[in-house]
Amino acid sequence: MAVAVDNDMSIFSLIAGASLPVQLVLLVLIITSLFSWWYIFIKLATIKRAEASADDFENAFWTGGDLNKLFEGITAGHRKAQGMASIFEAGFKEYARHKQQPRMEISDVMEGSRRAMRAAYNRELDDLDAHLPFLASVGSVSPYIGLFGTVWGIMNAFRGLSNVAQATLSQVAPGIAEALVATAIGLFAAIPAVIAYNRFASSVDRLSVRYESFMEEFTNILQRKS
Predict the structure, then answer these.
(1) Average pLDDT of the residues in 75-96
(2) CA 43/CA 36 separation, integer angstroms
């Protein structure tokens, strides 16, 4: 790359003046950043909805009402039950089905209900964990992709300077700046992804604990009811 003396050091001119491999690296990082922000907004809405749903269900469950009416209210809804309501629906449905069978041992009834709730619990966690691995990958890999672009750009800049009899700061600065843009974009993609991943992972862990606690408490209630 021929090093040109240019006073325009804006971000757009630096990107436009970068070599093709560096521009490809920047394009990959920008697309990756856009996808990560899209997933961040999706996860914000998903986790907020899951937390609100858990709060609403717990308020309804612990009022001490009839479990049959609560189950009927959930199954009668137009929308599929989610979160804690889905776990309750799976466990109570399996419990009621086994209770209708004659000579069914209580231990077998409870075990069937536990398995149904565990399966529903795993499905809910899979939904909550969706896109988190992508955010983790963006946070860990983007700086290295940006560093690759920086190294390539610096090598290209020094290769251009080899044809110059005397290198000056005005000749070196544009090439180095073009290269460092890749590192900056890499960090721009990585930092929000890391922050979002840590926050979402913590929120999912809290919801997981709430779901597991509910399963244990609901199992005890069904056992006493038996």
Answers:
(1) 85
(2) 10
